[in-house]
Amino acid sequence: MLLAALLSALAGQAPMAWSGERQIPSPGEDSGTETLGQLEGRWSVRMEIVGQGGTWHPRGQRLEWRWYHILDRQAIQDDYIAIDEDEQGKATRRIIGTNIRIYNGDQQQWHMAWISAERRRLATFTAVNEGGRVVMRGRNDQDREVRNTFFDIGRESFDWVQEWTFDDGVSWVPVARIHATRLE
């Protein structure tokens, strides 16, 4: 029930009373999940973060991103897993989080909720499809205004960049980027 209320709030709708019947889309109904839906599966992630002077540095973690449909394929959930390793390759810390993404066709945008096991806070975002790119905006779990963009989305790989603003969205500074390749 909590999940239904959360998803209803994200979609900007009042919670629907449970009628005992599943809400299955009619044939041909667009759930909006096509762009991000093609990311269903497991992905190996290479992340880089920007350092002082604008130099990009690899993130020293083993990273995996798992995407799957939920709610009768009307929404997408993805789990982000980062494992810090010591010099011998032994795991020293796991950083995990999950997104729930649902597309609101009336508003022509995604509504998303991010929960991190480490920070234990909810962050919400909205996103729009822009010519094969998905551009997310919101405040992250550190309460910083961010823009995350998925681009070059293909069957075997995709790219992502996170940008921060220090002037209320007038300009954006890239701080992290990801290249993901399909594992399965």
Report on the structure:
The chain is mainly beta and 184 residues long. It has one domain: Lipocalin (Beta Barrel), CATH 2.40.128.20. It has helices spanning 2-10, 34-37, and strands at residues 41-50, 56-58, 61-70, 75-85, 91-104, 109-116, 122-130, 133-139, 145-151, 157-164, 173-182. It has a ten-stranded antiparallel beta barrel with strand order 1-3-4-5-6-7-8-9-10-11. A hairpin with a 4-residue loop joins strand 5 and strand 6. The longest helix is centred in the N-terminal third of the chain and has 9 residues, at 2-10.
Record keyword descriptors for this entry.
single chain, 184 residues, mainly beta, Lipocalin, globular, disordered N terminus
What is shown here, in short?
The protein is mainly beta and 184 residues long. The chain has one domain (2-11, 43-182): Calycin beta-barrel core domain (Lipocalin, Beta Barrel), CATH 2.40.128.20.
Beta strand count = 11
Give the spatial strand order of the biggest sheet.
Answer: 1-3-4-5-6-7-8-9-10-11
Helix content: under 10%
Q: Tell me which oligomeric state these chains represent.
A: single chain
Q: How many domains make up the 3D coordinates?
A: 1
Which CATH architecture is right?
A: Beta Barrel
Can you summarize the main beta sheet?
Answer: 10 strands, antiparallel, barrel
Query: Proportion of β residues?
Result: over 45%
CATH class label: Mainly Beta
What order do the SSEs take from the amino end to the carboxyl end, as H and E?
HHEEEEEEEEEEE
Overall average pLDDT: 82
